[in-house]
Amino acid sequence: MEWFTSSELAGTPGMPTTDRQIRNIMKDLASSEPEKARQREGSKATEYHISILPPVVQAALLRKAGKVKVGGMTLDLPKPQAPRYCKEQLWANWSKANDKAHAKAKDRLKAVQAVHALVANGSTLMEAYQHISAEFAIAMPTLRRYCAAVKGFDDCDWLAVLVPKQQQAATESRAARLALVSDQAWEFFKADYLRREQPNASVCYERLKLAARDQAWAVPSLSSLMRRLELEVPKPQQVMLRQGEHALMQLYPPQERTIEGLDAMEWINGDGYLHNVFVRWFNGEVIRPKTWFWQDIYSRKIVGWRTDISENTDSIRLSLMDVCSQYGIPREITIDNTRAAANKWMTGGVPNRYRFKVKPDDPLGLIPQLGIKLHWSSVLLGKGHGQAKPIERAFGKGGLEQYIDIAPGLDGCYTGPNPMAKPDNYGERVANAEDFLRMVAEGVAMYNAKLGRQTEACRGVMSFDQAFAQSYAQATVRKASREQLMMMMLQAEATRVSQHGTIRLEAGGAIASRNNRYYHPDLAQYAGQKVVAKFDPQRLHEAVIVTTLHGQTICEAECQDKVAFGDTQQAREHKRRRTQFVKANKAAALAQQGMSALEAAALLPSISDEPAPETKVVEMVRPVALGNAALAVQPAPLAASQPHTEPAPVVDYEARYIAANELALATLKKSRI
């Protein structure tokens, strides 16, 4: 193309970007050679020959068209050749080969490069073949085959070309070399072997042979079937069919989280651990205790724990109280979504898998009341997700079991991690509860003090204690007040206020309908409503703190004791208190009335008879007929529902009353006589 308009030249190197400026320049360039400007056919635009353009603009236009001007000739630029081979596929084959094949390819590359180096220095090709074959101990036909293989490939790809093809060919032809098996026999074996019961392959093979005897199936050896299974059914699919979806999920690499941006006591997580130790508890029962541990996520230090018969609300609540009293209130908490950890007294007001919808009359839990953001650990496919909580690693190998359960002080008390791994001295001794709690405290201290922890905060040098202390000294920690600690110390129970202003507590479960009744005058205001009573389980006969469902304190209600049926002294005392209650509330009620009902009635406006409104249109009454043919007016007959009755006689009630009194006096005198 040799002719260009101003719009086609816009933006070309050496030319302006606007049509107007280009038109002015082109008019000046074509003024000396007017034949180099003409009107484009079929258009009003003026086009100009390339020869009047500056050399820079000409070169740019020719390069854009794939041409170049040499002297007085315009030549086409050589087009890049299409790729002769796929580099990606070539190196993909390299990556599939093993280390042995890589080593052979490197040796072959050295020989081929040596041949090309000798030829480049003036040697003939045959001389180079002879010399290199003797130098590298390679047969000449083999060396020539190597050199021919790299012909047409770039030098940088020779290594991938020289990879031995035996392994790749064996892999590709593996399916073709498998032993023959009938389609139905193969499906029978897969249906039997790939089950959740995980049957043994040898037993499945025996059943296959029994079925093949009657069906005339071709059945190879068991090893051939297992090789076919490995080739046709990938490992993840085998895990899914034999072990389930949860096991398949565990094949996916876990997510790694960083503690960057966290401080000590900013985020903690907790979980319960069942000890593998026999302990005689305080009630005399031999049990395996369970301890609830709180761990700081930043440093991995165990910051609080409580041991009990089982994982329950009390151990979680009291261990959290220990953490808050010693180190402060954390900002966020991660716990399991279990019944004990997710109960309403700890987490009320926060939805979980047992409490999808928060009811308006549900009490606010202890953790939300403290301003702690609650996180639930994941429950995937019906099972817990231990990777979500760092404290799970403290229960694994080399964890708290080694520091507590297998401590020398508990020798003979260890049960083993499972029934199949019992020690030889199983059941030899039972530890006392006091000794066991002391061993737990010592084990936690040793666990926290171990140096060289391989964590992000410890960096293989510090202990959990040191990492915690280093960050805790610079962190902003919320300290717990006395009221908050008291709130964590007390248990809570939701109850409804009766019409008498009393509440009843079962204190965690009534036995033989036993419960306690508490009263305070302020509770009458909440009759029929739900409230929360907080109490010390060891002092149930003392006062309890009553709050609203949102944590606002109402009063301290006193326990009301039952009295004997014939106790007159208690009856008089009860009557005295009831009289005081009535008098006090009566006086307060009268004080509320600044105006009597009669005074209020006197202020109402008087109501007069309402005048009838005046009509604008009046209709004349017209008789039915006129003249002597009109019917006489007859009285209206009585309706059936209104029968005719005689007028009622007048009764003298005063005379009847006097007569009745005289009759009564006469009867009384007669009975006395």
Automatic annotation (TrEMBL):
A Pfam family that the UniProt record links to this protein: HTH_Tnp_Mu_2
An example molecular function term from Gene Ontology annotations: transposase activity
Residue stretches making up the HTH Mu-type domain: 1-69
Single GO biological process annotation from the record: DNA transposition
Full protein name: Transposase domain-containing protein
Organism the protein comes from: Aeromonas caviae (Aeromonas punctata)
Lineage of producing organism: Bacteria, Pseudomonadati, Pseudomonadota, Gammaproteobacteria, Aeromonadales
